[in-house]
Write the structure tokens for this entry.
Amino acid sequence: MKKISLIGSTGSIGKQVIQVVRRHPEEFKIVALVASSNRAEFEKQVGELKPDLYALSSVDKQKALSAADYPQADIVFNAAGGFAGLEYSLRAVSAGKTLALANKETLVCGGDIIIPLAQKTGSEILPVDSEHSAIWQCLNFGRDAKIRRLIITASGGAFRDYPDEKLKTVTPEQALAHPTWKMGKKITVDSATLMNKGYEVIEAHVLYGTPYTAIETVIQPQSVIHSLVEFTDGAVIAQLSYPTMELPIQLALSYPQRLGLAVEAMDFKRTFSLDFKPLAREKYPCFDIALECGEQGGIAPCVLNAADEEAVKAFLQGRIAFTDISRAVRAVIDKFPNEKVESFSQLEGIDGAARRLAQEYLKMN
């Protein structure tokens, strides 16, 4: 039985982790549980799961952080939202734990420190994002195959079929109506701007050591093909399933085994099509900004993430238009000098400074 330390238990991914554990009580047990501030939901989870260690990070941050290197846990599942998730990942990797990673900021902001640390401690990082899990599966759970390209798929978000002029007046409610996935609010808006896909390109570069020139993004509207790998001999392997996060979640927990999963099986007896469309990059300025920051390296992706979080928050609160998100992010990036990543404390300071700069810009514009 694998013993799990779950960080971010009350979010969308965290709840699905618990669903997987419920389905396989003979395989998994949650021994440590952490959430941010949703006390009512958290107390229900504690009552059901009876973990040995549990904490709300908003009440006792140090106790919450201790779940990341809890000695009794075999695997740390990091489903924390935002920059705060990086500190949990660093604690887990420092302790040599297996890390099931659903926190984007760990690799986007902290890739320069987390990967060398994992190599030093022998910690294994298992991807949970559907796209990176798909690549991992296509590579037969390895990372040293000779590849020509990674092809990351995108749904295109809620506004993929909207004309450009209509984007100025879209509402938060419309942005949250994702055509194929059910996710948290922040990531759903990031899917509409394609900032999230830019983050995933950065993650793929960090996780698999693939040059940016060998990572492509295409629109796959049905969200059935989750990513593809083209090998040096021209063979292309893809991973397919109906859109569900429970599959990559369970696989990260059960690896190297595969367990039964109560999700809809793909029906190849009925007629259906799988479409690919080129990414109209002029429609998604956030995607280009993300790639630019990834290629620059250093602290640029950390600044990007902080500015985006503040801009998305302002959009969801009705303070700015959807099209202002990219403008706000661009303004912060342009005013922030880049530098080499040295430590978590440095990134923590950069994150705070970039947020303050974004907040000032949003107040004035």
Observations:
- The first strand starts at residue 2 and ends at 7.
- The chain has a mean pLDDT of 95.
- The two ends are 54 Å apart (CA to CA).
- The chain is about 45% helix and 15% strand.
